[in-house]
Write a structure and sequence with these properties.
Helices cover 50% and strands 14% of the residues. The chain has helices at residues 10-16, 57-65, 110-126, 137-145, 153-164, 170-180, 190-205, 210-222, 228-238, 244-253, 259-270, 276-299, and strands at 5-7, 19-26, 29-34, 37-42, 52-54, 72-76, 81-84, 90-92, 97-99. It has a 9-stranded mixed β-sheet with strand order 8-7-6-2-3-4-5-1-9, with helices on both faces.
Length: 300
C-alpha cells in the first residue's frame, strides 16, 4: 500500500520509536501508538494532519479490513514503510509526497482585525452554529459585544478564558484550563478543539502569555485530562503545527482578506466532524476577540 503524502517529520519520529501498536481503528483511518505519541494513517477528509500519513480511499479500506486494535506496528527504516500486523499490511512512504504546514507570525493591525472579525461573524451568522459545549455562537457573540451577562456557566468560563490569555497568574490559568481540557464528547473533546483554535491564532499573531502556554503544556503532557487523540492535537498545536484545514483560514484571519477567500475555508472547517470543526472555529473567534481586547487596552 502506497501512501500519497505524509508530514515531513514523521520518518524521523518513527526512526526514534520504531515499534508500537494500533491504538484505534475507525471509518476514516487508524491511529498508531509509537512510544508516547500517535500517528494517523487515513484519508485527507479532515485535511492533511500534523501527524498524518495519508492513503487513497481504496487502499485505506483494504488496510482497515486487515488490522485491529492492539496489532503490532513496526517501522522498517530500509523500506520506508510501516508494517502493521500481517506482512501484507505494509504502508510505504517511498513514493509519497512530504508536506509541512506552517503559520507565519505577523502583526495584525487594528483595522484588519476589525474587518476580519466582521467577516468571521458574517459567516457564523449566516447559518447558526452550536458548539459541542452547547453554546450558540451567534448568541454568545452578540451578548459579548453588547457586554450583556453570560447566559450559562460555560459562557462565563469562556469569557474568563478570553480575559486570561495574557495572565501571569498560573493558578488562575490552570483552573480555567482544567475546565476546558477534556470537556465534551468525541475523539477530540470540544474544549480541546477550542484550545487548538486559540493556539492557532496565538501562533499566527502572538497572543498567549508565557505562563499560559507553560501551564497548558504541563497539563496536556502530564495531566491525563483528555483523550489520547485530543492530547496529540494539543501537543502539536503547542509546537505551532496544525492541520491544513486550520492553517489556511487562520492565515487569512490574521491578514487583510476578503469574504470570497475566507468563507470557503471556514465552511470546509465548520462542516468537519460532528462539532469538531465548529469548535475549532469558535476557538479562533475567541483568539481574535482576545486580540481585540488587548488592542483596546493598549489604546487606553
Amino acid at each position: 500500500m502506497r501512501a500519497e503524502g505524509y508530514e515531513q517529520h514523521i520518518p524521523l519520529l518513527l526512526s526514534e520509536q520504531p515499534e508500537g501498536c494500533v491504538h484505534s481503528v475507525f471509518q476514516n483511518g487508524a491511529n498508531i501508538r509509537m512510544g508516547e505519541r500517535l500517528f494517523f494513517i487515513g484519508t485527507v477528509k479532515n485535511g492533511q494532519l500534523p501527524f498524518g500519513i495519508h492513503l487513497p480511499q481504496g487502499e485505506l479500506q483494504q488496510l482497515l479490513e486487515g488490522i485491529e486494535q492492539g496489532d503490532l506496528a513496526v517501522w522498517d527504516q530500509r523500506e520506508q514503510a510501516v508494517l502493521i500486523g500481517r506482512p501484507e499490511n505494509a504502508v510505504s512512504l517511498g513514493e509519497a509526497i512530504p508536506y509541512h504546514w506552517t503559520l507565519p507570525r505577523r502583526e495584525v493591525s487594528v483595522s484588519d482585525l476589525t474587518d476580519n472579525l466582521a467577516l468571521l461573524a458574517a459567516v457564523l451568522l449566516e447559518t447558526p452554529v452550536k458548539t459541542g459545549l452547547d453554546v450558540e455562537i451567534d448568541e454568545f457573540l452578540a451578548a459579548y459585544l453588547e457586554d450583556r451577562a453570560p447566559s450559562s456557566w460555560t459562557e462565563t468560563q469562556i469569557r474568563h478564558l478570553i480575559a486570561a490569555v495574557n495572565s501571569a497568574d498560573e493558578t488562575e490559568v490552570e483552573e480555567l484550563l482544567r475546565f476546558f481540557l477534556g470537556r465534551g464528547q468525541g475523539l477530540t473533546p470540544s474544549g480541546d478543539d477550542h484550545l487548538v483554535g486559540l493556539l492557532a491564532i496565538d501562533t499566527a499573531a502572538g497572543l498567549l502569555s508565557d505562563e499560559f502556554r507553560s501551564v497548558l503544556r504541563r497539563l496536556v503532557t502530564h495531566g491525563k485530562l483528555t483523550t489520547d487523540i485530543g492530547r496529540e492535537y494539543l501537543l502539536y498545536a503547542l509546537d505551532g503545527q496544525f492541520s491544513s484545514t486550520v492553517v489556511r483560514p487562520v492565515s487569512e484571519l490574521t491578514r487583510k482578506t476578503e469574504i470570497y477567500k475566507l468563507k470557503p475555508l471556514l465552511t470546509e472547517l465548520l462542516e468537519m466532524g460532528h462539532s469538531s470543526g465548529a469548535d475549532t472555529v469558535f476557538g479562533m473567534l475567541l483568539g481574535l476577540l482576545a486580540l481585540r481586547r488587548r488592542q483596546e487596552w493598549q489604546k487606553k
